[in-house]
Amino acid sequence: MEHLVWIIPVAIVALVVMWAIAVYNGLVGRRNESKNSWSQIDVQLKRRYDLIPNLIETAKGYMKHERETLEGVIRARQTCVDLNKAGNIGELVKAEGVLEQSLRGFYAVAEGYPDLKANQNMMKLQEELTSTENRIGFARQAYNDAVMRMNNAIEQFPSSIIAGFGNFKQLEFFEVESPEERKVVKVSF
Question: To 10 degrees, the CA torsion angle through 23, 27, 32, 37?
Answer without folding.
Answer: 120
